[in-house]
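The methods section describes the discrete structure representation at length, but only in general terms. Since the whole study asks how a given chain folds, the encoding of that fold should be made plain. An entry of this sort, consisting of the sequence and the corresponding backbone structure tokens, reads as follows:

. . .
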Amino acid sequence: MLRHCSDARYVWNLCVEQESEYRPGRGKMPRFAERCRQLTEARADNPWLKGGQDEGFRIVTVTPGDVRRLNRTHAAVKVPKAGWVRFRWSRPVPGGVKSFRVTRDRAGRWHVAFAAVPGPVPGPGTGTVVGIDRGVKVSAALSTGETLHCPGLTGREARRLRCAERKTAKAKRGSGRRRKAKATVARLKAREADRRKDWAEKASTDLARRFDVIRVEDLDIKNMTRSAKGTVEQPGRNVAQKAGLNRGIGKAGWGLLVRRLQDKAPGRVQKVPPAYTSQRCSACGHVARESRESQAAFRCVACGFACNADVNAARNIAAGHAVKARGGDGTARPVNREPQPALLA
């Protein structure tokens, strides 16, 4: 299987090199059929190719006999150059599958994924709307008052991870001690990623089934998690704090949750501007930075309305396009303005 990955990478790099040679004015790019012919010639000239960070390859021709069920928990798939390979039967293989992809993650685990596009998750059809505020302490707060937390490593697992990372940093490169420590780090991080993906799948399915319209903040996560190191001439400030915030955003699964919601509820996910959603009172519409007493507490300085800060923001998000002029219940209310200085006669 590793050899198959190496061969796939070699052929891929050849294709990339070929594309760089065929620039405008240098001729026509070879199409799929021509590249298949070239690959056949390459196998004839290179017996090793004939035999055989993320590694993987895709098999594009699958017949009904290439996948067979062995028992209740296992099945086997026919992989070129490797023969019949057993895998854990986690879910039924959809009918009409034409291709599958085999990958190897950083923890050394092999996965097989059959290409099939699932249908959308149907909504309740009642016109219900929900707003979602994403945070670090609370992964997702709903306008209904619910809070969702993305599971991570336990305290014991986090301590093991820190210990293994220290060993990796201190060990000599190429040594067995470093290789063992790196394997431990990879296993723990893969376990954390598995839990995050499982949470995102279950949470997105539940939200898609319960609500017809799902509104989230229109956040540019890539820019938000950009490093604050700066340059030698202009070094950044609060670099350690910013790095910790970036890790927290990644562990909360912000982008993964919205991406899976868009896949399962196409056309029903709306993105709204995030401006002032955390400072506006969802009851009266008053905007004031002082109303946000702490990370978790919100108390309006105008009307005294108290609520969880994340839930209050989620209610503002649920108001959608009317967030700048309406309260969380959709009722129009006057928006406070800064006092203007009196004009002199």
Q: What stands out?
A: Confidence is low (pLDDT under 50) at residues 321-345. The first strand starts at residue 55 and ends at 59. Residues 216 and 288 are 22 Å apart (CA to CA). The radius of gyration is 27 Å.
